[in-house]
Amino acid sequence: MVAGRSLFVCVLLVIAHSSAFDCLSGTTILNSDRTATNPCVGSNNTECYFKCNDGFIPMGRHVCQTYRSNNVQIINQSFYGGRCDRLCHHNAPPIGPLQPSSKGLCPSDFAAPLRYNSSDANGACMATLCGTSDQVLGVLAKSSYHLWTLARNDRTGLYLDHYDVVHPSYAKQAWGQAAIGSTGLGLVAETVALSMGWIDLTTYQERVLLTLQTLAGETRNITVARNSHGWMPTFVDSNTGRAANPDRYSTLATGLNTAGVLFVETYLRNTNQTDAVSKRIATLAQQLYQQVEWTAFLCAKNGTIDVDGTTIPMILNANNTVGSALSPVEDDGFYSFFEMHYTVWLVYHSVCGSLLPTQCTKYPRIAQLWQRWQGRRYHPNQSYKTYPLLSIWAAYLVQLPYYMTHSFNSDTTYQALFHNHWQADWTYFNSSDYNAGTQGQYGLGAGPTQRWCAGTGYESDNLHPDDPSAQHCRNYSPYSVMGYLPTQPELITGHVLELAAAGETSLVLPDGLGMVLWRKSLVNDSWVQGYGVTMVDFAAELFGLSTLWLGPSFFQNHTNHFRHR
Q1: Among 277, 418, 515, 564, which residue's beta carbon has the most beta carbons within 10 A?
Q2: Residue 368: which of 379, 377, 357, 354 has the closest Cα?
């Protein structure tokens, strides 16, 4: 009896030990070699490698982990993250040069697959299109531009804040919410399309001219809202121009919009377009640039606009008092870096021109603003592991300045910090905070998300290595990956092709006219898109991909607005 009791206690101790340290669930993976006779075994952070059966492809890393966010226990001491997706056995419709595969595998001469969620007689599966690597990348790039055309109001030339790909009917789109910043990015998207040969010069001129005329108040029955200093709101109605919130004007959105306007003018000048329409576009671009009173930017401590102030506001009220989102000078004498870079850059050049800050004596605070802003790149105050960073915020924080400002994309120090941002991002996803990073599964981005795991419907992902619950829905954003292409093109191109081959992030555009890669959750693979593709976030997908053909110099050359002034 004593021996039996000892054996019973021993068994209990073994079970208790296993429960405390090992993952006892998620140990098998359907349609793989991880079965009841060959289960995953291990403790926290142990990765279980697996091989899918024929006719299936692997997705994700299967790792022993526990994860809780937004007061929800999402993973509880379980192997999680890996699965085997079935390949469809039907012919998908071709897209451009990409041809369907009836068995889900691609022949050696068209070995690059582009997959997407579909179904056949046996249920859910991954449909496969095949082509060369260049063809897959080309389809993704051209599709990215096509989405911009869908998000454009063709009567006014304004671009929507977001476009609902899942429910693509005209009536489902939020035509009452155009974004001023996205409209600036849309102008750059049109310039990329012309340079890639997707549209001709006449079409380009017609499209950008209408947009500039609308912004300048020359389109019938639409007046884009501005305050008395020329600052525009973040959102306006794409049909009327009325502000979504008539008491809020955005220095951030106005700066991004103006950067796009000047991109068009500089492109036409650089490509020696001297016809009457191009001259009209250039005149409108300068008119819009000068319509903003750039000296009315800084604010004083009492919350009023003051050319001798030192605080940067993101939002101004209708009465020109400061609304919210203030950025003061930090204790080390520099500003914290964020995407306001393009506005600060325009403020400085509008006031000081080609003068050095020490020579710009008429507006000493604005000269000091630029010195304190630019000084941050030599004194980065954030880091992740061994990487000095401008910020811990998502990829857009460095990618929008890269694609929209010469002061960033032509500066070797900023380029090095841009590279660090990518390395930190990829490393973070490979860590136990995400247990991802393979198959292109990384990319801190902003965009729609799920309320149950994030507590909000839209958010920006950040680096939070010291908070194991701050990854919320563990979203990863392919457009952020593609936005980094200029810094490591060969390696990141491989990551993009891996994303295309996996198919999890693919969204088929209306009428099957293309396919884009969009944000996905690592904790809920059934979540698709959210309320729509937010265009300001999505811009990096087109811009990054375009550098594979146009080169980074395309953005460096056509953001160099002030060399002749």
Answers
A1: 515
A2: 357
Instruction: Find, among 185, 204, 195, 212, the residue nearest to 401 by Cα.
Output: 185
User: Which DSSP letter does residue 93 get?
Assistant: P
Rounded Cα distance between 418 and 409, Å, is: 9
Cα distance between residue 456 and residue 146, in whole Å: 29
Residues 429, 423: contact at Cβ < 8 Å?
A: no
Strands 312-316 and 322-327: antiparallel
Angle, helices 133-150/180-196, rounded to nearest 10 degrees: 140
List the strands of the sheet with 112-120, edge to edge: 99-100, 123-131, 112-120
Residue type, position 68, single letter: R
Q: What is the pLDDT at residue 259?
A: 98
User: How many other C-beta atoms are found inside a 10 Å radius of the C-beta of residue 13?
Assistant: 10
Through-space distance between the first and last CA atoms of the chain, rounded to whole angstroms: 97
H/E segment holding residue 17:
helix 2-21
Residues 6+ apart with CB under 8 A from 31: 52, 53, 56, 84, 86
The CA-CA-CA angle for residues 187, 287, 321, to 5°, reads 90
CA distance 231 to 292: 6
**Half-sphere exposure (CA, 13 Å, Cβ side) for 205?**
14
DSSP E strands, 15-134:
47-48, 56-59, 62-69, 72-80, 83-86, 99-100, 112-120, 123-131
Sequence-separated (6 or more) residues with CB below 8 Å from residue 297 = 251, 305, 312, 313, 343, 347, 366
**What is the DSSP code (8-state) at residue 196?**
H
Alpha helix ranges (H) inside 298-363: 341-352
Q: What is the 8-class DSSP label of residue 485? A: G
Q: In this structure, are residues 565 and 482 in contact, taking their beta carbons and an 8 Å threshold?
A: no
Q: Does the global pTM surpass 0.90?
A: yes
| Residue-averaged pLDDT of the chain | 94
Q: Is the four-CA dihedral 242, 244, 245, 249 of positive or negative sign? A: negative
Integer-rounded Cα radius of gyration of the chain: 26
| Distance, CA of 321 to CA of 339 (rounded, Å) | 22
pLDDT tens digits along 84-136: 999 998 888 999 999 999 889 999 888 999 999 999 999 999 999 999 999 99
Pairwise CA distance, residues 163 & 516, whole Å: 12
Amino acid residing at 514: G
CA distance 116 to 517: 10
CA atoms within 13 A on the CB side of 132: 5
How many Å apart are CA 516 and CA 538, to the nearest integer?
10
Integer Cα distance of 400 and 95 in angstroms? 30
